[in-house]
Design brief:
Length: 284
């Protein structure tokens, strides 16, 4: 019993050490984003703070970086880590279009895609073909590019943090605690840049904790950090760069769409409940 308590105390010390280092490094980038020009460099730097904290923590506790689950894992989990976030994003916007908070599709955005891709001067390509081509590129090339920054977060949150939490908490506890901390890590940006801070904080916490159940599930099932990297990148691309661009905004749209929107919170919450029950049933 004493050995178990000692091991748990050591685990909690490692967890708090990791969080302290994440907080220290993140503060520097949060300050830069809020007070300086909020460039992608600062945001990219912030997203790599969990990885930096992980590497430093591993060094301090004399554990090799190779101890992280770098293996690719089963392709099945990689595929589902693409499909699930794309699916909950699509369902969210179908609901928004159906309920009249927005409509499909935004001709101006499609035209801009055509200009960016150099497709407007090629024959008589229809808006549908331009849209399909743009979505394919955004859903592949942009997801790969986005993975370069989500990797920084996922090395920390899913590659290291949730495995330490797993030593002292259940699947449910790991998902909730890691989700709450992950959401709180974003808190300064929401408070500074948000329009309706109370609503956006509420919906964002629901979204992030719900996503945490899904990503924790695929991480533990695959024994790899890569499904989480894919999941995170796909979710960002679809909910930030594809689906909002296809939508013509109507009255009330701003409350329902995007990662701070009510609809996204509702749909991800439903998905989160499903993965919570699935994870508990499979005794992860």
């Amino acid at each position: 019993m004493q050995e178990i308590n000692s091991a748990q105390k050591r685990t909690w010390k490692i967890i708090f050490l990791f969080l302290a280092i994440v907080t220290l490094f993140s503060f520097l980038f949060h300050y830069a984003i809020v007070n300086l020009y909020p460039s992608k460099i600062y945001i990219g730097g912030l997203m790599w703070c969990p990885a930096i904290a992980t590497f430093i923590t591993l060094k301090l506790i004399k554990r090799p970086i190779s101890s992280l689950n770098w293996n690719w894992g089963n392709w099945r989990y990689i595929r589902w880590s693409y499909i699930v976030p794309a699916l909950y994003g699509l369902i969210s916007y179908i609901c928004i279009w159906s309920l009249g908070f927005g409509s499909f599709a935004n001709d101006e955005a499609i035209k801009n895609w055509g200009k960016e891709l150099g497709l407007l001067g090629i024959g008589n390509l229809s808006p549908i073909l331009i849209t399909i081509f743009a979505i394919i590129l955004l859903g592949t090339v942009e997801v790969i590019r986005a993975s370069a920054t989500t990797l920084g977060e996922e090395i920390g949150w899913r590659g290291f943090f949730i495995y330490e939490l797993r030593k002292v908490l259940s699947f449910t506890g790991v998902s909730i605690v890691s989700g709450l901390i992950w959401a709180t890590w974003h808190w300064p940006l929401i408070v500074y840049y948000g329009d309706n801070i109370s609503l956006e904080l509420l919906t964002f916490y629901i979204v992030i904790v719900s996503m945490s159940f899904m990503m924790t599930y695929y991480t533990f099932k695959s024994k790899s950090l890569w499904p989480a990297v894919m999941f995170h990148a796909v979710s960002n691309v679809y909910i930030q760069k594809i689906l909002p661009e296809l939508t013509i905004q109507k009255e009330g749209f701003e409350f329902w769409h995007g990662e701070y929107g009510i609809m996204f919170a509702i749909i991800t919450f439903i998905f989160g409940i499903y993965f919570w029950r699935k994870g508990v049933k499979e005794k992860l």
